[in-house]
Amino acid sequence: WVSPLARALLRSRAGDTVRFHSPAGWREVEVLAVEYPGTGP
Fold first, then answer.
1. Rg of the Cα trace of the chain?
2. I want to staple 1 with a disulfide (CB 3.0 to 4.6 A). Which of 5, 6, 11, 19 is the partner?
3. Cα(10)–Cα(18) distance, rounded to whole angstroms?
4. Which domain holds residue 41?
5. What's residue 35's pLDDT?
6. What is the four-CA torsion angle of 29, 38, 2, 4, rounded to 10 degrees?
7. What is the pLDDT of residues 23-36, one digit of tens each?
């Protein structure tokens, strides 16, 4: 992955807080949910 956000989200789980470097500086986001297409109810 080239995207800094995509790299930060790899192997993350719901509830994790991930940090990544963006053009505006370091950002921190909380992962609220992880969903995969085709695996829902």
1. 12
2. 6
3. 10
4. 1-41
5. 87
6. 0
7. 999 999 999 999 88
As a whole number of angstroms, the distance between CA 33 and CA 2 comes to: 22
Q: Letter for the amino acid at 33?
A: A
pLDDT top residue among 4 and 38: 4
The reported pLDDT for the residue numbered 26 is: 96
Q: How many domains does the chain fold into?
A: 1
Model confidence, pTM: 0.69
**What's the chain look like in SS3?**
CCCHHHHHHCCCCCCCEEEEEECCEEEEEECCCCCCCCCCC
CA 28, 18, 6: angle at the middle one, nearest 5? Answer: 105
